[in-house]
Design brief:
single chain, mainly alpha, 3 helices, about 70% helix
């Protein structure tokens, strides 16, 4: 019985200490949403340019005339890894 009480108290403390607040104390304004949109837009462009560069580098490595079988494999891995992502 003593273990059950200790376990129940630990569960209650952990549930209350790691939970999200119920009410939002600071209202979200239009400028907050505009700043968030700007940050997401910048991140999207960085990822787009970085991925395109990675694909292009992989294609150039894998398709050069002096490339070996290992170089071609490296190019395919570089180009293929940038196209797969987790949604």
């Amino acid at each position: 019985m003593k273990k059950f009480i200790v376990f129940a108290l630990m569960m209650i403390v952990s549930a209350t200490s790691f939970s999200q607040p119920v009410t939002n104390t600071v209202p979200i304004t239009k400028t907050d949403y505009l700043q968030k949109s700007k940050n997401q837009n910048t991140t999207a462009w960085v990822l787009l340019v970085g991925g395109a560069t990675f694909i292009l580098a992989g294609e150039l490595i894998g398709n050069s005339k002096e490339s070996t079988f290992g170089d071609a494999g490296t190019g395919v891995i570089m180009a293929g890894s940038s196209t797969f992502h987790d949604r």
